[in-house]
């Protein structure tokens, strides 16, 4: 008895194929059955075209490689453009799906590849996306090697040396000796201190110091001197420029009550918190800081700053003593024009020019400031270039507003916390920003030069 067998429709097909001639059977086996496959089944949900280099995410969705790169560059988020699920690791190209699409839709894929290669923005995004993946794929122990690793080591070594020097400096009781006149009221000055103040105005006062010393002019007598007193004996200051320079500086002393600071260290000793605030604020936001000086410290800081960075043409060849007069004169419209152009275009150049004027007093410190200003200018140019390359200049107003709010909040927090911070800690921050900040900025510039378009934020 034959075993019971079920009927299968495929058996009928096999019987029909068995009746076909061998040539027809061979043609059926070699012909791909793609009549029911449409382009919609292999389309990207970003560009709605045939997938090119399909990339499969952990959620299972597939996208063109360049579409995913453009999405990542615009959003800076590692999530699926369709379901917003975060992907794990770095997405890879689905090789099996890519080969199948290229066999079925060869002409369409070739056309789309040509369009992608001719688009510079897409090529830039793909390069940035791939370098971002290479950076994620590197082992953590090797990720920080290279220029950044070298400068980090140098920075650590310099920090250790600086800490030891500061500990020895304060531990041995050797404090920096600043001019006492910047904190001592002018009415309490002794005749020797008056002569010292006169000497600091410049070598042109050498002919008048002896007369002040013989008359025992102390601080109270100095405050009562006027133009007529300086012309007559015993002072005999007949040179009008010299006399005006002495009177101009004397007016500043009367307004402040003490001698105004004439160099960086004196300014730091007289305004410890303000100097630290300005040092960090000029580095983070030079335009806002200079505007702050214009609003709240116009005559004492802003005017000398402007006259130093943008000197008047008629005063360039004048003598040294005339500088005391010109720093308090209202700038001309040519000076304002030059200043505003540099203020908006190259604000760090203003700081470098101001530091260059102090080379005679602060030789190495001025050079540190100038180098740091150049590095900060390069970093600002890199930031603007990234915005331009990514076509995100429309986000610039929002970034400026966020930056303004951040600077205001940090400044307010600094004003609240400043009285409670020990002076030793403030000095450490001050010297760190002054001498070690350029080394950090060198590291940042090197990273930007090596990977200009891969700074994922």
Annotation keywords:
Herpes Virus-1, endoplasmic reticulum, single chain, 3 strands, mainly alpha, 457 residues, DNA polymerase, domain 1, 3 domains, 65% helix
Q: Round the Cα radius of gyration to an integer and report it.
A: 37 Å
Proportion of residues in helical segments: 55-70%
**Cα shape:** elongated
Q: How would a crystallographer describe the biggest sheet?
A: 3 strands, antiparallel
Q: Could you give the distance between the termini?
A: 79 Å
Number of domains: 3
Estimated structural class: mainly alpha
Query: Which strand order do you get reading across the main beta sheet?
Result: 2-1-3
> Roughly what fraction of the amino acids lie in strands?
under 5%
Total number of strands: 3
Please provide the ordered H/E string of secondary-structure elements: HHEEHEHHHHHHHHHHHHHHHHHHHH
Low-confidence stretches: 1-35, 140-150, 171-178, 453-457
Question: What is the residue-mean pLDDT, rounded to a whole number?
Answer: 78
Count of alpha and pi helical runs: 23
Protein name: Bifunctional apoptosis regulator
Domain SAM: 189-256
Membrane topology: Multi-pass membrane protein
GO molecular function: ubiquitin protein ligase activity; zinc ion binding
